[in-house]
Design goal:
This protein is an alpha/beta fold. The chain has helices at residues 19-28, 44-52, 75-86, 105-122, 134-141, 158-166, 183-191, 221-232, 236-251; strands spanning 3-5, 31-37, 57-61, 90-97, 126-131, 149-152, 169-173, 197-199. Helix 3 (75-86) runs parallel beside helix 4 and helix 8 (221-232) packs across helix 9.
Amino acid sequence: MPIFDTHCHIDVEDFDADRAEVLRAARAAGVQDMLVPGVQRSTWPSLIALCEGDPHLHLALGMHPVYLQQHQDTDIPALVEAVERHQPIAIGEIGLDWYVDGLDRNKQQALLERQLQVAQDAGLPVVLHVRKAHDAMLNTLKRYRLTGGFSHAFNGSLEQARRYLDMGFCLGFGGMLTYERSSRLRRLATELPVEAIVLETDAPDMTVASHQYERNSPAYLPDVLKTLAELKQMSEDEVAAQTTANAKQILGLI
C-alpha cells in the first residue's frame, strides 16, 4: 500500500550527493508521494525545478520562521507571483517558533499573517511549523478562511489537536513517534482518530529510532507507519490507506 510523506526536504544540500538514490530507496519502501515545502525565497528555484521534474514530488512554497533574518518585504509579492506561475499545492513551510531564542515574535506573526493571506487568496492549504506557540497559531487561524492544512510534527495537547481538526487540519506524526521514550506523543496518537493523522519524515531531520543520529530519509517512513499501526491496533495497510487518503484530501489530489 503506497504511503505519502507529507513533509520532506528532499531538495536541501544534504541530499545533493545521492538524491536519486534516496528517492529510489523511498519508492522501493512504498513511499510514492512526497510534499516538499519551501523555507526561504533563495531555495525556491531549485525546489521548483526538482518538483517539476517528478510528478510524485509535490511543491509547497513559503518562508519558515526560523529563517526570519533572511526574509525580505519583497518576498511576499514574489510568493504571490510564484504561486500564480508555478501552482504549488500548498503554502509552507510557514509558522511560529517560540522555542528558538532571538526570533522576534512580532515579526514572525506579521510574516505568518501575510502568508496566510496569500494562502486564503489562492485557495491553498498551509503547512505549519509551530513550536511552543499552538494557542497563538490557533487564534491566528481563526481570522482566515483557509482550506485546511497540516500541523507539521505536532506536539501540542489533545485539546489543541481538536481545535486544529475543527478547522480542517490534519496532524503530522514522524520519527519521534518511533522512540519508546515519546510516551506523551504516543498517547496522543493513540487518542486521535486515524482520520486526523498524516505521516511525515521531515528528512533530513528528526530521524526514526532505528537510524538514530543518522541523516533522516523518506525511505524510513515505513517505521513511522509500523509504530502508528501498533499504537492504533490496526493493520499497516489500513493505516497507510487512511493516512494517504487524508493527505490527498487536504492537498486536493483526490
